[in-house]
Amino acid sequence: MKTNVADIQEGAMPSLSRDSLSEKIYGRLRLALMTGVYDSGARLNIRGLAAGYKTSPTPVREAVMQLVREGALELRLGHQPRVPVLTIPQYIQNPRKRAFLSKGSRPNSRRST
Questions:
Q1: What is the pTM of this model?
Q2: Torsion on CA atoms 88, 90, 91, 95, rounded to nearest 10
Q3: How far apart are the C-alpha atoms of 46 and 33, rounded to whole Å?
Q4: Dist CA 77 CA 110 (whole Å)
Q5: Which residues lie closer than 8 Å to 81 by C-beta, 6 or more apart?
Q6: Per-residue model confidence as pLDDT tens digits over 40-74
Q7: Helices then strands, each counted (H, E), the chain
Q8: Which of 25, 34, 28, 96 is nearest to 62 (CA)?
Q9: pLDDT (0 to 100) of residue 13
């Protein structure tokens, strides 16, 4: 069966590139961080996240690395990425993290349950 070039150009054969998949995962993880789904200090398991998103670890790793570059996650050599633990002075002194977290997360403080 021959593929018609016009069909490809008009989007008859949509595909999801790895870049767009990592961007979608990035958006979901970012939203989860901003809304407090993950507690301060929580470790994120890339394979576990990949299983949850029903994808391979590669696009999850790419999304996580973008969040590390933005300061939303921390990554030390040989360790899993984790949500930073910010004290109130760190939160106040770091406008970049404050802007990132401003839509829902709070700096580390004692929670009453």
A1: 0.65
A2: 150
A3: 15
A4: 29
A5: 43, 44, 46, 64, 67, 68, 73, 74, 75
A6: 899 999 999 999 999 999 999 999 999 999 888 99
A7: 6, 0
A8: 25
A9: 41
Q: Which residues sit opposite 54 in a β-bridge?
A: none
Residue found under tokens 């690395």: 65
The SS3 of residue 93 is: helix
- Is residue 95 within 8 Å of 103, Cβ to Cβ? no
C-alpha distances in angstroms, 9 versus 78, 90, 104? Answer: 44, 50, 41
Q: Which two tokens stand for residue 23?
A: 């961007």
Q: Token pair for residue 95?
A: 């406008």
* Inter-residue contact 28 to 37 (CB < 8 Å): no
Quick one: tokens of 19? 């870049």
Structure tokens at 7: 């069909």
Q: What is the mean pLDDT of residues 22-45?
A: 91
Q: Which amino acid is at 48?
A: G
